[in-house]
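User: Structure please.
Assistant: Input sequence and predicted structure:
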Amino acid sequence: MLTTADKKWITENFATKEDLLFFVTKEEFSEFKEETREFQQETRESLNKIMNTLDHFLGELRDMRQEHDVISHRVYRDHSPKIEDHEKRITRVETLPLPRATV
């Protein structure tokens, strides 16, 4: 015969009919798996769209950088001799003696 302590131990350690109502059935689990697969597929599609958009932007950025490099090189090539000439002229002007002021 079960004692009151035994009954208490059983109810604390084993599931009751009410507890079992909260468990997932096979059908519910199958539905959940299918919904999860659908969600994964939608997520993959969204991620692919995002990655394609990023690829487009990165391609544009790469093209802009290349264009910037070409233009920068051209500007440097065109202006570098002028800058060097100005440096020589400034150095020459700075080394000239100052005229004396007449009062």
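Residues 24-93 form one domain.
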